[in-house]
From TrEMBL:
Single biological process term from Gene Ontology: D-gluconate metabolic process
Name this protein carries in UniProt: phosphogluconate dehydrogenase (NADP(+)-dependent, decarboxylating)
Lineage start: Eukaryota, Viridiplantae, Streptophyta, Embryophyta, Tracheophyta
Pathway(s) it belongs to: Carbohydrate degradation; pentose phosphate pathway; D-ribulose 5-phosphate from D-glucose 6-phosphate (oxidative stage): step 3/3
A molecular function GO annotation: NADP binding
Source domain of life: Eukaryota
Organism: Zea mays
Annotated 6-phosphogluconate dehydrogenase C-terminal domain residues: 12-244
Alphabetical list of Gene3D superfamilies matching this protein: 6-Phosphogluconate Dehydrogenase, domain 3, N-(1-d-carboxylethyl)-l-norvaline Dehydrogenase, domain 2, NAD(P)-binding Rossmann-like Domain
Length: 253
């Protein structure tokens, strides 16, 4: 089966090496860069490093065309209307909602990132100070966000913070924005527009903020297919249900 072509635009230090690395693993890749000599340079490097499957393009249109084939084919299969509420969209409101949704998603992704670092630090015994990390990043080459000041302050307020999400300031900001965030994600889902970042952040938030999650459904499924039993929240013990029989009774009645 032919592998899906990956696309990479921007062929400076990072881009060129990324492209060659991906191609070296056997994945065909299309590349494009504003200064087209870098496209040729990358293709030549690919050739010299063992005829790696790197395909160069000198204009954005042909570059995009070269990578969109599987999506174009899929779009022919999945045609038709999406579910839509049909109500007209207030564009000014939508723009503001997206702004708020983006901000809330950003808080969430920083919260996740910080907790990943915290977990690795605990595993490796690094003793990292998360507030200090935020301060140090501010001096780095890329992340200079004012946001990092606020993260540092959150950890100064409470060095043992379980998650940035529960810092009082960030929590309030999320609360103020969650309605807009939900509106944006719902609108996108209902119209078949993929918003992986915002949707994943919202799912993370909705998991994190719940004292109970729908894991009981998983327990029920395990009990159904393998009699693994389940626990209940209203009484101690292990339970098993003959789910088949219940289903049969329901369908018979
Ligand atoms: N270098 C690092 O240590 C590092 C670390 C983490 C993340 N990053 C991120 O990785 C990305 C690339 O880093 P880099 O250091 O290689 O960046 P860079 O030196 O700024 O190179 C960017 C490349 O993108 C090309 N480009 C810019 N706008 C374009 C457009 N509209 N169409 C096509 N090509 C375009 C540039 O073309 P021209 O050749 O025409 O200028 C250049 O070759 C950046 O987003 C950077 O923030 C870099």
């Amino acid at each position: 089966m032919a592998l899906t072509r990956i696309g990479l635009a921007g062929l400076a230090v990072m881009g060129q090496n990324l492209a060659l690395n991906i191609a070296e693993k056997g994945f065909p890749i299309s590349v494009y860069n504003r200064t087209t000599s870098k496209v040729d340079e990358t293709v030549q490097r690919a050739k010299a490093e063992g005829n790696l499957p790197v395909y160069g393009f000198h204009d954005p249109a042909s570059f995009v065309k070269s990578i969109q084939k599987p999506r174009v084919e899929a779009s022919k299969i999945f045609q038709g209307d999406y579910y839509s509420t049909g109500s007209p969209v207030d564009k000014a409101q939508l723009v503001e909602d997206v702004r708020q949704a983006l901000y809330a998603s950003k808080i969430c992704s920083y919260a996740q990132g910080m907790n990943i670092i915290k977990a690795k630090s605990a595993e490796k015994g690094w003793g990292l100070n998360l507030g200090e990390l935020a301060r140090i990043w501010k001096g780095g080459c890329i992340i200079r966000a004012i946001f990092l000041d606020r993260i540092k302050k959150a950890y100064d307020r409470n060095p043992g913070l379980a998650s940035l999400l529960v810092d009082p300031e960030f929590a309030q900001e999320i609360m103020d924005r969650q309605a807009a965030w939900r509106r944006v994600v719902c609108l996108a889902i209902n119209n078949g527009v993929s918003t992986p970042g915002m949707s994943a952040s919202l799912a993370y938030f909705d998991s994190y903020r719940r004292d109970r999650l729908p894991a009981n459904l998983v327990q029920a499924q395990r009990d159904y297919f393998g009699a693994h039993t389940y626990e209940r929240v209203d009484m101690p013990g292990s339970f098993h249900t003959e789910w088949f029989k219940i289903a049969r009774n329901i369908s018979n009645n």
